[in-house]
Amino acid sequence: xxxxxxxxFESDAKKNAxxxxxxADVGKIEIRNFPDQESYLRFxxxxxxxxxxxxxxxxxxxxxxxxxxxxxRIAKSLGAKRVGLCAPYLAYMRQDKIFHPGEGINARYFAxxxxxxxxxxxxxxxxxxxxxxxxAIYTIPTCVLHAxxxxxxxxxxxxxxxxxxxxxAESVQWVSEIATQCNAPYLILTKxxxxxxxxxxxxxxxxxxxxxxxxxxxxxxxxxxxMIAAILKLKKLNxxxxxxxxxxxxxxxxxxxxxxxxxxxxxxxxxxxxxxEKEFIQIxxxxxxxxxxxxx
Length: 296
Ligand code: R5P
Known about the structure:
Elements: E1 4-6, H1 12-22, E2 25-26, E3 29-33, E4 39-43, E5 51-55, H2 61-77, E6 82-87, H3 106-117, E7 120-124, E8 142-145, H4 148-158, E9 162-166, H5 172-182, E10 186-188, E11 191-195, E12 198-201, E13 213-221, H6 225-236, E14 243-249, H7 255-262, E15 266-269, H8 284-295
Parallel strand pairs: 1-2, 1-5, 5-6, 6-7, 7-8, 9-10, 9-13, 13-14, 14-15
Antiparallel strand pairs: 3-4, 11-12
Helix pairs in contact: 1-8, 4-5, 6-7
């Protein structure tokens, strides 16, 4: 029997495109809130004995997580064979250590919750920094997909004479790979984060690259402060206006605007989070590839 794909929060276009790429049926589920804001969920499609794929990215996660966990439980109670989650953006991964007394390792607690409700997880470039492998915190099979290839393709097709810049030590993992694929030089900066919205980065060694277009590459843009700190340093060196490329555009409400005001020529992210941007780097084919391996 074909797998069946449900989505509680993605657009019909995205849901249908991924279902097509997977040759899966698109399932129907009713979701609404009671007046007291508790969730109501009802499967309209038969899920008995079927492989279920939930396709929902985990930005804005606190709003989405209860309906998703309940849906997974309900699907199992209705006899679903396996219930998997395709979450292109995986939340809570940056809370991967106790930074201050009294905190917890929320990346781990979140992994425990997801592992208790789903049978597998597919995601794209999760923030693996102090936790090196999802298997260290998830007890279900996980598949980590990488957006480096489509990002390199986009850079090759759109930027002449690029020099790639990673804003912090952990960005070396994807920046070096993209640089090889684009045949472009790269630099890695060092970053200090003083608070959620106060970030400083080192001055890039740009002497050799004055004719190049700086391409700032990060896994996540959230407040935008990391990109802004790097842009301001580049500005002092009179480089060409930089292009900002990231896997996940989490974007605080004013982040894009502030990045452009700081001096970015363009911002582009992968299609892992649905915002209002018109242009994305598509990753649907990669998602389909990862999901197929889970349901084979
Ligand atoms: C953190 O280590 C990540 O790799 C990103 O650099 C960070 O999440 C970006 O966040 P923001 O846009 O808030 O500076």
